[in-house]
Design goal:
By secondary structure, the chain is an all-alpha fold. The protein is 77% helix and 0% strand. The protein has one domain: ABC transporter involved in vitamin B12 uptake, BtuC, CATH 1.10.3470. The protein has eleven helices and no strands.
Length: 260
């Protein structure tokens, strides 16, 4: 029987959580870049966090299931609104996403302003608490990863059609565990680093993200850094190395404008 109290296993749930989040966030992140809505994840993550916070403040001691349901409901409502904007006002969508994010972030500050533990709540919201992940927390992340993967491979049309709903579900499932910063990193950094790669880009993006998660976890344990922040920095570092190794000078020369 696996004894998670042994030192060599105590961080296994955190590592698995990061890898499962990458499994769902990498394909979603590639879609975000294709659609040009990079800050959508920040807005949806903030909405999910506010929904959960509202439930916690309205019903102190509420069960985790109700807290998650509140976050999902608010995230889905926000995703539906932004999806409607994509169809009816695409030229304004990115700006609207920014407005939604900053408005909800400001509302979050108002909610926690009179809470004696407000600073702690904000730190958890942004940086997550991935080191405290339990094995029983992983089933939802795994279910979301399977759902995203099946739709992407078996029905690309459905993946496109239900992208906003999938996005809201995936972000809500992950933000309570890994925080807003690491959610953004898992979505954008691997997808951005491998942008333009035509062969095995998805696997390369996931592998790059996995390196960041595992390296960041080791750094966190070794130097007592916040785990979420360490993973973000490690992922960004590996992405920079990957990008440097895949620079195509000839292509860059072709794309450089010539003064006349």
């Amino acid at each position: 029987m696996l004894d998670l109290n042994r030192p060599e296993w105590v961080f296994l749930p955190a590592a698995l959580a990061g890898l499962l989040v990458l499994a769902s966030h990498v394909p979603l992140g590639r879609q975000v870049l294709q659609r040009g809505i990079v800050f959508l994840d920040l807005a949806i993550a903030q909405l999910a966090a506010v929904g959960a916070l509202l439930v916690q403040q309205a019903v102190p001691g509420a069960a985790s299931g109700w807290v998650a349901a509140g976050g999902l409901l608010v995230a889905l409502l926000g995703a539906a609104f932004l999806h409607a904007m994509e169809r009816h006002a695409p030229e304004r969508q990115e700006a609207l996403i920014g407005v939604v994010f900053i408005s909800v972030a400001s509302f979050t500050l108002v909610l926690v302003s009179h809470d004696p533990h407000g600073g702690e709540h904000l730190q958890t919201l942004l940086g997550g608490q991935i080191l405290w992940t339990r094995l029983e927390d992983l089933w939802l992340l795994g279910l979301v990863a399977v759902l995203v993967g099946l739709l992407r491979w078996l029905s690309p049309d459905a993946f496109q059609r239900y992208f906003y709903a999938l996005f809201a579900i995936a972000i809500t499932a992950s933000v309570q565990i890994i925080g807003v910063y690491l959610v953004f990193a898992c979505l954008i950094i691997p997808a951005l680093a491998t942008l333009g790669q035509t062969r095995a880009a998805h696997r390369q993006a996931w592998g790059l993200g996995a390196l960041g998660v595992l390296t960041g976890l080791l750094i966190s344990v070794r130097w007592d850094w916040p785990a979420g922040a360490a993973m973000v920095l490690a992922m960004a570092g590996w992405a920079a190395v990957y990008w440097a190794l895949h620079i195509d000078p000839a292509r860059d020369q072709e794309n450089t404008p010539v003064d006349k």
